[in-house]
Write a structure and sequence with these properties.
Length: 414
């Protein structure tokens, strides 16, 4: 569908790119312009927990919310099919009026972003040299908060996503009367997980884990001071003030347990000693950390603590991606964004992760672009604002499209 959309807009190249996993999409619109923009897209989404949704997550339902306006509720509405479709609508509008675009546009689309982009390099490889001369790469987002404040992060964290598995070697669970004489994998795994952080669950206890963390620069700290530190009612960890929480989110790695399974937790009673247990953990990495170094330190820590028997499988791994603020791309994004909102703040990076390093590694500056408001990425009832209620500052869909038009012409300026 995406390939067809690009072809329909007049992209001279609109190709489905095979990989060892899900295919990618490549598109090139040659406007004969002096400047070229690379647009990163993704066409995959997160799985859904269907019972947690108030509407069919794949139907695309318009919902009226008093004081907010008209919302599109659908999986991908926020992350990132809503902004991506709005950008294509903006291209269609420019072409309808001018017959061509103000800049050349290269689209590179990932079909595996939500599982760590394991084959994205295969999508990039045939086109990498052509992309090197571009002004930069943009990620299409809705960057406004509900109060209109707009934040533009200039990088993303890296990710190491692991599955840890513990076993006592048995083929099946045992009666729990054996608990005093047979090892319990669930207890063993929980003890291993607890050893990886301090008791507060925030500070990573793995030896040397912070050794490669890059200290914030003066420019980073200036950006922090200019950012909003409204956490929207989220409970912050004890001892953290809002600005300190923002700094920790952006400049420090994290350790997270995404889930634990093992034994019996269904209705009724079953007193057993499980034979296996497993957990999914993720750690988000900051410059200049690498997934390889983080993994080896975690392995060494577990072995030293008596947990060397726990099996570790790497499910996703990629390093951080980072860009500078002093680029023509960032200036164009800020200049065009200022036309639509009162407060535009640059952030050193976001707390999220993505395959940005594969693009910044080509020497491409990076910046997210896009007005409008969305919420609930990865969560039930994901939404994008289509028509704001009277007085609500964020732009609706039509405004988002106009802001994309403004950006493309701002980038085209000498």
């Amino acid at each position: 569908m995406l390939r067809s959309d690009l072809a329909g807009l007049g992209f001279r190249e609109a190709e489905r790119v095979p990989t060892d996993g899900n295919p990618g999409v490549w598109g090139f619109y040659d406007a004969g312009a002096p400047k070229t923009l690379v647009v990163y897209m993704m066409y995959d989404v997160q799985p859904v927990e269907i019972d947690a949704w108030s509407t069919d997550p794949f139907a695309g339902t318009l919902v009226e919310r008093p004081g907010v306006g008209t919302l599109l509720v659908a999986r991908g509405a926020s992350n990132q099919k809503g902004p991506e479709r709005a950008f294509l609508n903006a291209l269609q509008a420019i072409l309808a009026v001018d017959g061509t675009l103000p800049v050349n546009v290269m689209v590179v689309a990932d079909g595996e972003e939500e599982i760590g982009s394991p084959h994205f390099q295969q999508v990039l490889a045939p086109y990498a040299e052509r992309m090197r001369g571009a002004e930069g790469v943009v990620l299409l987002n809705t960057n406004q908060w509900s109060d209109g404040y707009t934040e533009l992060p200039l990088g993303v964290k890296g990710l190491l996503y692991l599955e840890l598995r513990a076993s006592n070697g048995l083929d099946a669970p045992l009666h729990s009367s054996y608990a005093g004489v047979v090892p319990n994998p669930a207890i063993h795994l929980v003890q291993a997980l607890a050893s990886l952080t301090s008791p507060d669950g925030r500070t990573i206890a793995v030896s040397g884990y912070y050794d490669r963390v890059r200290e914030p620069t003066a420019q980073d700290l200036a950006m922090i001071r200019g950012m909003s530190h409204d956490w929207g009612g989220l409970p912050l960890a004890e001892g953290l003030d809002p600005e300190g929480a923002t700094a920790d989110l952006l400049f420090l790695p994290t350790f997270n347990v995404s889930g634990i399974t093992g034994g019996f937790v269904d209705e009724g009673m079953k007193t057993i000693t499980p034979n296996t247990a497993k957990a999914r953990i993720d750690t988000r990495l900051v410059p200049d950390m690498t997934p390889e170094d983080a993994l080896e330190r975690i392995r060494a820590h577990l072995a030293a603590g008596g947990f060397g028997d726990i099996e570790i499988e790497v499910l996703a791994a990629f390093p951080p991606g980072q860009s500078r603020a002093d680029t023509s791309l960032v200036r164009a994004v800020v200049r065009s964004s200022n036309r639509w909102t009162d407060v535009v703040a640059l952030a050193p990076r976001s707390g999220g992760a993505g395959p940005l390093y594969q693009l910044t590694g080509l020497g491409l500056p990076f910046c997210p672009v896009g007005m409008g408001f969305s919420d609930g990425a990865h969560a039930p009832n994901e939404l994008m604002l289509i028509e704001p209620a009277e007085g609500l500052p964020p732009l609706g869909l039509a405004g988002v499209e106009k802001a994309y038009v403004d950006f493309l012409f701002a980038l085209a300026e000498p």
